[in-house]
Amino acid sequence: MPLDAQPPLTTKKVPPELLVSPRRPHRLGVRIVAMVLGSTLVFALLISALQIYGAYQHALRDTRHHLVDIEQNYLPLLATAMWSVDEPRIDALVTSIAKMEDVGRVLLQDDVGQRWEKTHPEFHTTLFNIDLPVYYEDNGERFLLGQLEVALTDNRIRAELIKTAQSIAITTLTSLLLSAIFVLFIIHWWISRHLEKMARYAQNLDLTTLEQPLVLERSSTHITDELDLVAEAINQMRIRIRDDLDNRTRLMDELHLHREKLELLVAERTHALEEQTHALEEKTIALEQQSAALLEQNYELDAYAHTVAHDLKQPLTSMAASASLLSALGIGINLSEIKKRELLLGLQKSAQKMQAIIDSLLLLASLRKTETIHLVPLNIRQIAEEACNRLESLIEQNHAQIELTDNWPAALGQGQWVEEVWVNYLSNALKYGGPEPRIQLGATAQDNGMVKCWVKDFGPGLNEQEQLQLFDLFVQFEQKSADSHGLGLSIVKRITRALNGNVGYEKSADGGSVFWFSLPGTR
C-alpha cells in the first residue's frame, strides 16, 4: 500500500452485536436475583423437609399412643367379655376400637374361630399392623382366648403433612418473592442503572466526545465503591485515547513531509535491485552451464583414466612378461624356436590389443567432439562377422557356439562404430553366457523404420537392479576374468545415440539375455 494511504482519523461505529440492548436493562440484576432465589429455595426446601420429617415423627408417636391405649384399656375389657361370652359387649368394644383415630381395620378372632371385624370406610393403605394376644387371668392362671389384629392407616398423617407442607410452601414462596422484588430493586438502583449509563457512554464515545467526562448520578455523600473506580478508569482511558490521537496526528504530519522523498528513493532502489537481480540471474545461468560442461568434461576425463587403467593393464602385463623372457636368453635361459615364436606372437597380439584399445579411446574422443555424423548404408551381417573374427581367440577359449540368423536388413551408420558395438555385445555374451556359451546374432526390421540388431545368450540373465545400471560406466556384475576389446556398454550407448539409435536389454522367454541396439533403416 502507498505510504500516503493511511487510514483517516474517523470514528468507528460499534457493531450491532456488541451493543447493550436497552430492552433488557436488568439482565445482571435478574441473574443475581435468580442465583439468590435458587440458593435460598434450596435451603428452604431442606428446612421444610426437616420440618415435615419432624411432623411425621410426631404423628407416628401419637399413633403409637393409640396402640398403648388399646393394649392397656381395651385389651383387658375384651378378655373379660370373651371369658363371659358377652357378644354384644365384644362387638361394642371392637366398634369402639375401630372408631379410634388412625385405626383403619380391627379383627378379633377367638379360639374357636369366631370373628369380629370392623373396617373404616376411608381405609386404603396400612401404615403398620399390630397383633395382640387376648389373655384372661383367673387365680394366677392365663388363658389365651383369641387374637386381636389392628391395622393403622396414614390418612390423618398424610393430611396433616400436606397441610403442613402447604403452609410452609406458601410462607416460603411469599418470603422469597418479596425478597426477590426488594433485592431486584436494590440492584437496579445501586448497580444496574449506573452500569447502563457506563455502557451508553462507551457506545457514544468517539472523537467528538473525548472532552466529555463520565459522571454517575450519585449523591455527593455516598461512599466510594467499585462503580466509582470503574467510572474513573473509563475517564482515564478517554484521556489516554485523546492524547494518543493527538500524538498520532502530529506524527502523521511529520511523516507526510518525508513521504514523497522516501517513495522516490524506494523506486530508485527497486529499479537498481531489479537490474542487479537480472544480471545475477544471467550470470547464474552462464555459471550453471559452464559448471555442467566442466562436470561432463571431468566425468569423461575420469572415464578415460579408468578405461586406460582397466584395459591396458592386461596387455601391458603380458608384453612385460614376454619381453622379460626374451631378454633373459643371454643369461643362460634357452628357449626353443617354437617358444620364441609363441612369445613374439604374444607380443604381437598384445600390441594389437593395445592398438585396438587406443583406437577405441580415439573413437570415444571423436564421438564426444563430433557434431554432425554422416550416416552411410551398412552390411550389418558382414560387420557382425568381422566382430566375430576379431574375437576368434576368445570364442575358442570359451568353446562358444556362434549362430548368425538369415535375412539381415540394411541399415545406416558408421562401420567402425557399429563393429565396436558388436564387439562389446559379443564379448559381454562370452563373459556372462555361461560355460561353453551358445550365442545368437541377428537383425530385424521394425515397423517404425528402425533396424533392431541383437545378441542373445542363454546365461542366467540379470535382475531388475542390474538392468537399471546396465549401461552405466564401469559396472561389472560378476568378477570373471575375460578379454575385453571395447570400452563397455556405456560406450555402446553413446555410440548408438550418436547414430540416431538406441540400446536396451530384454530377458528372453526361453532363458538368458538379449542385448540389442537400433539403427536407422535404409527404407
From TrEMBL:
GO molecular function, one example?
A: phosphorelay response regulator activity
Q: What is this protein called?
A: histidine kinase
Q: Where is the Histidine kinase domain?
A: 307-523
Domain HAMP: from-to ranges: 189-246
Its principal location? membrane
Transmembrane annotation, as ranges: 32-56, 168-191
Tell me, what is an example of a GO biological process annotation in this record? osmosensory signaling via phosphorelay pathway
Recorded GO cellular component terms are:
membrane
Matching entries from SUPFAM superfamilies are given as: ATPase domain of HSP90 chaperone/DNA topoisomerase II/histidine kinase, Homodimeric domain of signal transducing histidine kinase
Q: Which reaction does it catalyse?
A: ATP + protein L-histidine = ADP + protein N-phospho-L-histidine
Q: What is the lineage of its organism?
A: Bacteria, Pseudomonadati, Pseudomonadota, Gammaproteobacteria, Cellvibrionales
